[in-house]
Write a structure and sequence with these properties.
Blueprint lengths: L1 H5 L6 H33 L4 H49 L3 H6 L2 H23 L1 H19 L5 H44 L1 H6 L3 H27 L1 H25 L5 H43 L19 E8 L10 E8 L4 E6 L5 H6 L9 E6 L2 E2 L5 H7 E4 L8 E2 H5 L8 H10 L3 H5 L8 E2 L8 H13 L5 E5 L7 H14 L4 E5 L11 E6 L2 E6 L1 H7 L1 H19 L1
Parallel strand pairs: 3-10, 3-11, 6-9, 9-10
Antiparallel strand pairs: 1-2, 1-4, 4-5, 7-8, 11-12
Helix pairs in contact: 2-3, 2-6, 2-11, 3-5, 3-11, 5-6, 5-7, 5-11, 6-11, 7-9, 7-10, 7-11, 10-11, 15-17, 19-20
Length: 579
């Protein structure tokens, strides 16, 4: 885990190394101060030697200035190192997520990934800063101060060993109990993010069904669970403070008691006792900082493990060792395809699928919910890989192509259309970053989007809110179709992406496809028979299997499912017309 995380330090190694070095220098000057104080008392003040007082006092001032300088510089270096480490960590996680296949993404919820990118990274950042500061400063000051105390009086310094042993056992018990609770708390943060995301995405539905109170109760219940767990673990962590204070006061009393006796017996001078008590406070303060650092490490350990999970997750879809970078045509073949989303699942989502599609053909796919229509087309672009069989594009297995080449030649408008915050032009150029304004307009005309875009006050420079919330469902679908057309793909897949447009616009889009991109293979998944009626062939799916393949006229005579759907829609259309 440490090796995986440390790889994200990269260009901040210099700051990460300099911070501990400067802290070590600061500690060295800090430890000299009590030693010099004992000289002032025993040689200067006791002997009434003012010259020595001034000389040693000057050295004390210099030590203080150097310690302050080193402390400030180490703080700056540690802050830069930890902030840079967190930046790289988020970048590395984000890059890893971009390479995930849909199967990898399905493994984690989006709420969990957001928590890991934000809260978990912040915890690790704070912990890293403590590690290169407190976790260096505390042991160093304890070692240096202990060595100086041994030099002053070896017997008296044995009290430190007892204090360290007592604190070490106490900290171990606290960490052992607290760590599993923190793991549960971070999983609860995932739930909290999920509740917030669902509410914000579905706020219109929430208001339409007047479910605000229920949503507030759901959010409050999740918050209360986190609150109760945090209170519980904080009660455990809180024992750290009284244990530390008990140790500090006990050591101070013991040193004062035994030190006074040693002074009376002339085994210890007053100055040495003063410096000894100063070293006591330094050692015990070091122990306190060390315990604080360990508490932070306990919290961040849970976060670090969750981060490493994301970084180590390997995409199950990888490039071929010697990939092909050119797709010659839009031929598609499904050869005895079988697929299921989870390896442990007994039921296949797709079972024994065999289809042959020629380049330039228009193919319709119809079927009930859960029949496997969307799953089938996602195999073409390797959003998922088949469990058995072969998917071929241009006569070659899709697994032999370079992934980016394959996906650039296949444009897919998914069921859930997504627009990103930015202008309409910026959204359209996702399809082709170098597209001219004329090409944008032409693609929008083919998708029947040009007219309504022109009616916007800012036209193609109209700003689209996150998710496209300031345009209608039909408008969003048409912009997404135009974006796909701009890729000039060899294969265009419309996954129920005209469901929100009227039948007249739907027909106009299909006509534009036939006239302007005749060589592009077009796959149209639709619930409306009218959307696929003119297709070269129509595939009827049921429960992950192909129930029938043929033209509209052929299926009316050969497929009961297709005929039933067609008649029900035709009847509905007649009733609407009559109305």
């Amino acid at each position: 885990m440490i090796k995986k995380l440390s790889a994200s330090i990269r260009e901040y190694k210099r700051q990460s190394i300099l911070a501990p070095i400067l802290i070590t220098a600061e500690v060295g000057f800090d430890v000299l101060i009590p030693f010099l104080m004992s000289y002032i008392i025993d040689i200067g003040i006791k002997n009434e030697n003012i010259k020595n007082v001034w000389i040693i006092g000057g050295l004390l001032l210099l030590c203080t200035i150097f310690a302050l300088f080193c402390g400030i510089q180490s703080g700056v270096m540690a802050a830069e190192a930890s902030a840079g480490f967190a930046k790289n960590l988020r970048k590395d996680m984000y890059y890893s997520i971009q390479d995930y296949s849909f199967k990898n993404i399905d493994k984690y919820s989006s709420a969990s990934l957001i928590t890991r990118l934000t809260t978990d990274v912040t915890n690790v950042q704070n912990s890293y800063q403590m590690i290169i500061r407190m976790l260096v400063r505390s042991p160093m000051i304890m070692i240096f101060a202990f060595l100086m105390s041994v030099k002053i009086n070896a017997k008296l310094s044995l009290v430190f060993l007892g204090a360290m042993l007592f604190l070490g056992i106490s900290l171990y018990i606290i960490i052992k109990i607290a760590y599993p609770i923190f793991m549960k708390i971070f999983r609860m943060y995932d739930d909290l993010n999920r509740v917030v995301q669902e509410n914000l995405r579905g706020i219109r539905v929430v208001k339409s069904y007047v479910r605000e109170e229920e949503e507030i109760n759901k959010f409050s219940a999740t918050l209360n669970n986190i609150f109760e767990k945090f209170i519980g673990v904080e009660k455990i962590i809180a024992f750290n403070s009284p244990i530390m204070l008990f140790t500090i006061y006990s050591c101070t009393l013991l040193f004062s008691w035994f030190g006074a006796k040693l002074i009376v017996s002339n085994e210890l001078t007053t100055g040495e006792l003063v410096s000894f008590i100063a070293y006591t406070m330094q050692i015990l303060m070091g122990l306190m900082m060390l315990s604080m650092a360990f508490v932070m490490i306990v919290i961040s350990r849970a976060s670090a493990e969750r981060i490493v999970e994301v970084l180590e997750e390997q995409s199950d879809i990888k490039n071929n060792s010697n990939p092909i970078y050119e797709i010659t045509n839009g031929d598609i073949e499904f050869e005895n395809i079988s697929f299921k989303y989870k390896s442990k699942s007994e039921k296949l989502c797709l079972d024994s699928i065999n289809i042959s599609i020629k380049s330039g053909e228009t193919v319709g796919i119809v079927g009930g919910t859960g029949s496997g229509k969307s799953t089938l087309v996602q195999l073409i672009t390797r959003l998922y890989d088949v469990d058995s069989g072969n998917v071929k594009v241009g006569g070659i297995d899709v697994r032999k192509y370079d992934i980016h080449t394959l996906r650039n030649e296949v444009a897919i408008v998914l069921q859930k259309n997504t627009l990103f915050s930015g202008t309409i032009k910026e959204n359209l150029r996702w399809g082709n970053p170098n597209a001219t304004d004329e090409e944008l307009i032409n693609a929008c005309k083919l998708a029947c989007a040009h007219e309504f875009i022109e009616n916007f006050p800012d036209g193609y420079d109209t700003y689209i809110e996150e998710g496209g919330t300031n345009v209608s469902g039909g408008q969003r679908q048409r912009i997404c179709i135009a974006r796909a057309i701009l890729k000039t793909p060899k294969i265009l897949i419309l996954d129920d992406s005209t469901s929100a447009v009227d039948t007249k616009t739907d027909a106009s889009i299909r006509e534009a496809f036939a006239n302007y991109i005749p060589n592009t293979t077009k796959i149209i998944i639709a619930q409306r028979i009218a959307s696929v009626e003119q297709a070269d062939k129509i595939i009827v799916m049921e429960s992950g299997k192909i129930q029938a393949i043929g033209t509209h006229d052929e299926l009316i005579n050969s497929s009961d499912i297709y005929k039933e759907v067609y008649l029900s829609q035709a009847k509905g259309g007649d009733e609407n017309d009559a109305a």
